[in-house]
Amino acid sequence: MTAPIMLVDAPSLYFRAYFGIPESATTADGQPVNAVRGFLDMLASLIRTRRPGRMVCAMDHDWRPDWRVALLPSYKAHRVAPEGGEVVPDTLTPQVPVILDVLDALGITTVGAAGYEADDVLGTLSVTQPGPVEVVSGDRDLFQLVDDARGVRLLYVGRGVAKLEDCDDTAVRSRYGVPAARYADFAALRGDPSDGLPGVPGVGEKTAARLVDRYGDIDGILAALDDSGSGFAPGLRANLAAARDYLAVAPKVVRVALDVPLPDLPTDLPTAPADPERLLDLAARWNLAGSARRLVDALATRTG
Predict the structure, then answer these.
(1) What is the pLDDT of residues 44-60, one digit of tens each?
(2) DSSP run (H or E) holding 105
């Protein structure tokens, strides 16, 4: 049997680490390393408890791709900094290269792709890597990747790694009332202010789920709007009709790309650091000894 692969949404985890751990976690000269420590501790916990045989950490090489903005200009518009780029805390930005350096010293693969978000990299890996697959993220949009037939599950860490939710299709249906394969249609209807998706006025989660359940997808909903006997309440019909242009593009924005061009990647998770001396140097320089040790121990014992 192929060893399970864990696909990690690295930005999702290090943002959570940054906001979950005080900036009092610093180097000797006072540089914050709270995101680095938290991220490494999350990985250690995941490896220790899930025991994957393979791992890839996906990165955002383009957090707001032009092709999504062209479809929906409001996409993440509220997160654009005045000078351009994403609004990111000043003390988080310099910690990301440290995370990448530590992962490289450990021998854990990281990958991103120009013009695509980490979500798209995860989506592509989820359909191209042999299963079983566990995707780790706190991003709700990745519920759409769950696929029981291929053994793809989402380890949802919206409440933290210690309270992760192991989600198959039954869990997605229980949570939202729709199958994972229809999550993008559901999310487009409901909207998501955190991503600049307005949704359809008056359509919350329950109504969105009911519409998807009855009509299958947004194409089916739009087709039913043209049928005077389709049974929409007048207010709902009016709101859906007014949102027709939005609904024509929103699912494409929400849908995770599954065809990102990626290089051949080493995916085997090491049982020991690839470059122990470099890891020791990084741990000493950035005051990461405890987190690095816990992660190395998790790697060494995961097959025990």
Answers:
(1) 999 999 999 999 999 99
(2) helix 95-106
